[in-house]
Amino acid sequence: MAKHSRVDAVFHAGYKSDRALYLAYPMKNGLPDQTKFVKRQRYFLYKLQGSNVYSKEGTVFNVDGEVGAVLDYAVVSQLKDQGLKVEEVDSAAKGLSLLSKGRLDAWVGLESINDLLLSEAPDFKHIVKEALPLSDNSSYLAFSKTFYAQHPSLAHSFWQHIEHLTSHDSYSRLIKKYKFN
């Protein structure tokens, strides 16, 4: 939708160079401005207990079959660039279900979503999370290039307010309170 300017903005947009062709991100020195993130996104590798699959410094090892991830998430291209066969599904719950049934070798997903699902579903008790994140990214409020071209000062105003909000102590307390880490 954003690609064809059918929406003005996308919330929680992870930065990818191909997305930057049609989305305007808050930038600084040619890179996304880390002070204007909406949310920190940490992707972790999830696997069945006893599995030999593991990750180290952003690379996944010992995969014989497929790794699952949510459709169009930023981590998908990272996995494919490693030569992994990636099964893209429409939700984390579906992916964890496939993993729990042994239909995937591993699952890569956002910590905040997957940890909550694991804590609430007894069917997932044999799924474990790697200790270190596969990737640690920020997500942003990104505007369509069309909207940004017409309203650059409004976009910058949003990004300034986001920076003010996320740098405030109350933001950190809310993140911890609602388990959005």
UniProtKB/TrEMBL annotation:
Domain of life: Bacteria
Organism, as annotated: Vibrio galatheae
Source species taxonomy: Bacteria, Pseudomonadati, Pseudomonadota, Gammaproteobacteria, Vibrionales
Protein name: Solute-binding protein family 3/N-terminal domain-containing protein
